[in-house]
Amino acid sequence: MLVQAAACTARAAQWVREIAGRQTEPEHAVVLERFAAAVACTGIDLDPNDAYLGGVNWETRYRLDGYVLLGARRTERPIRLTTIEALVIGAVGALALALPAAVMFDTADLPRLCAVIDHALTTARLYSPAATAGAGDPPRADRTEHPL
Q1: What is the 3-state secondary structure (H, E, C) of the chain?
Q2: How far apart, in whole angstroms, are the C-alpha atoms of residue 34 and residue 29?
Q3: How far apart are CA 93 and CA 63, in angstroms?
Q4: Residue 130: pLDDT band by 50, 70, 90 thresholds?
Q5: Is residue 63 within 8 Å of 38, Cβ to Cβ?
Q6: Using 50, 70 and 90 to split pLDDT, how confident is the model at 144?
Q7: Does pLDDT of 115 surpass 70?
Q8: What is the spatial distance between Cα 27 and Cα 75, in angstroms, rounded to a whole number?
Q9: Separation of alpha carbons 38 and 47, rounded Å
Q10: How many C-beta atoms surround the C-beta of residue 122 within 10 A?
Q11: Per-domain residue ranges of the chain
């Protein structure tokens, strides 16, 4: 189960890195890259023998908070995320934070948490600007950038 959790967080981290790569402000890309690294580390560091932290240190946990949705401070332009991307990034962070607890208390929950992460990623890809854009399509709420 730990191998599957590490693979799941690696997929989520890769998706976040793709979003980081299209940012016009390099500072926002850095914030997203750090978040992606924390997501990946969470899956790699899970340790059922660590009854206190589940193997995931405080620094990694700190980087998984929702503040990532605001991007870097003091930039000229806001972070570029669609509404769906913002929701999925928030979900990935919250679910990644739940993984160490699952390792400590009930490893049977790991596959379920990973399934939710994978479902969120599938949804994000389904509604990504590239997947939904068509010539002359009107803007839709799921394709527009969020107001943060």
Answers
A1: CHHHHHHHHHHHHHHHHHHHHCCCCHHHHHHHHHHHHHHHHHHHHCCCCCCCCCCCCHHHHHCCCHHHHHCCCCCCCCCCCEHHHHHHHHHHHHHHHHHHHHHHHCCCHHHHHHHHHHHHHHHHHHCCHHHHCCCCCCCCCCCCECCC
A2: 9
A3: 9
A4: confident
A5: yes
A6: low
A7: yes
A8: 7
A9: 15
A10: 11
A11: 2-132
Q: What digits encode the pLDDT tens for the residues 80-106? A: 999 999 999 999 999 999 999 999 999
Which residue has tokens 């850095």? 30
Residues 65-104, buried b or exposed e (16+ Cβ, 10 A)? Answer: eeebbebbeeeeeebbbbbbbbbbbebbbebbbbbbebbb
Q: What is the pLDDT of residues 58-70, one digit of tens each?
A: 999 999 999 999 9
In which band, very low, low, confident or very high, does the pLDDT at 145 lie, cut at 50, 70 and 90? low
133 phi and psi angles, rounded to 5 deg: -75, 135
Residue with tokens 């580390």: 41
